[in-house]
Amino acid sequence: MSPDFFYSTERILGCFYRISALITTPLSDNDVLQKILDEAVDTMGFHRGVICLLDKEKENLVTKVVKNYNPEETQRAFSGNLNMKRHNCLVTKVVRTGTHIVLEDSETDPRITPTDRKITSFYEGGTGFYSAFCGPLKIKDDVIGIIAMWYEKKTTFPPEVISTLLTFANHMSVVIHNLRLFEDNRQKIKRLLTLQEAVSQLNSSYALDKIHKTVINNALRIGGADRALLYFMDTEKGSYLISNGEKVFLDEEDVYHPKVGQSIIKKALNTETIVVQSQLQDPDTTPIFNGYPSEIAIPLRIKNKFKGVLYLAKKHGCYSRDQKSILDILITNAVSYDSAIMHSQLSLEAKSLKTEVEALKEKENKLLGFHNIIGNSSKMLDIFQMINDVARHDTSVLIQGESGTGKELIARAVHRQSTRKSKRFVEVNCAAIPGTLLESELFGYEAGAFTDARKRKIGLIEYANGGTFLLDEIGEMNPSIQAKFLRLLEDNHIRRLGGTENIPFNVRFIFSTNRDLSHMVSEGAFREDLFYRISVVPIIIPPLRDRIEDIMLLAYHYIGEFNTKLNKNVKGFTTDAEKILKRYHWPGNVRELKNIIERIMILQSVDTLIKSDNIPAEIRVAAPHTPAMHAGELYSPDSLYPADYRSTIDELTNRIKQEILGKALEANRGNKAAAARQLGISRYTLIRELRKLENNNLSDNPTP
Q1: pTM of the entire predicted model
Q2: CATH code where residue 69 lies
Q3: Same domain membership, residue 120 and residue 171
């Protein structure tokens, strides 16, 4: 086995997340495919690779991207397509069967075909390959293409490696499929907008030449075609009228008429149906334009003595069902000027498109983050892996972290990854319910257990049977209830208040707190035996300041969320604004970041980018979380020339003010009144000092 196969789980998980994130990048489809292939080859230690996808007719396997090919191999890979009927080779076999193929020694493997020898350089003096993996890319049972990767030396593939490779292929298939759906819908929106524009132009003019020009120019855009004609036949006179978008003329010299007789235009005229041909499927027809074999002919619905056809041709590709439908609508409006039909059809198309886009958005949200937890830092990836490891077991989990770090999200992720995900997830905040009431909420009570207990009530633990129970802020639990809860954990049964029956339960407990339970144990504020009982698997969530690389990822996520909520179109941040967000301490963590983004987008006049001026002053002036400066660090002359004493004093004074004000605001989470009280000054004085510091910073860094 090749040593390259010894990869870490963290490395593979990181690759999966990077591939998932590609669906939201502003890259072209081929650039995304290239990054997917690069990730797969590099992560699994292969030497080279290729991704091929089926065309829309599923007739040809088209090379999309390659990895580590030399120029000659690259040219050969892209020079032609593999036809599913004519070519017999390993990759077409994988597509037909939907089953992967593994080659451990290509020199002796009898499955190698003559076609394989032609499309590889192994038998032509190149670097060649000895061992290879070729897996299908498919959605359920629908194969959309293949990924092939190989070694230039003989290598064995253990079952666990093959399983990992197939998992890679399945994950890539989902991303590629979603990319195609997004691209298809983007193109559909573009075509509908083109149609809307064309119809508006048609309804504003009745001049024949302008109508023809409008139809042809927009038909070329909708069909993605290279050449176009409008062909009209006068059935009484036997004459033919041609329009190429620039001029309208009679075909008196029979330039086009002989070609029309052997083309799909003739078929469309005779059958009065749309006729499509790609790559000369019908040997009885001839293209109107040489070198443009992909054609479509759409009959015009003209009254009286005329017949007509809109004809399009292009060198490569085909015409989708969506293109044919929109072209048909365009022709209907061009001939009948029936705007009612257009608006009705356009409305139906738009409604259907909206539903499809919403479904795609839902899939996109599932791909973003880990169960709605956004983070790509190494610390968060470690937590994601820990969630995967612990979720399979029913062990108690203690989630610790500062307020606003997302402890509940982590708990829900554990539940969704577990075998209990189809059962209930019940959450109780111990700090929000008084001690006496908390006991009855957890355990339930019998009728007559206390005043006003008129009938039996099922406790939340009993209600959560079979599922997951989150006790949030466990450090706030009353000591008397702590003892009862410890007994519950040890005995695996509960007894309702006022009852005598022991009721067994099957619940997975998760606990969370923002307090230091070990310190509380040492002070006697929390039971030591309960602490050890609930902290079997501790998960410590890092504060936002300790995962700076996630700050902008979260910020852009919330911009997208509030764009939808507030009907805005903010694209991102300026460089200065990003620097301010990254250097801020974020005492309120992710919750504070979300609230700040929402406040900015509601209260500030933001166009497309959030600027530094849009960020609240308490965040702009807050100093980064650094150790306190010593007196010797405030000023250290680095020049033999005399210093400007007054300007140096002013600069140091501003630095000290910024340090003091920033720490006061940070300690009071941006509350100016509270910070002023802590400093012993008025709120007005605090605001005035902040403005002075802000003006000094602007004067020191003037805008060019």
Answers
A1: 0.42
A2: 3.30.450.40
A3: yes
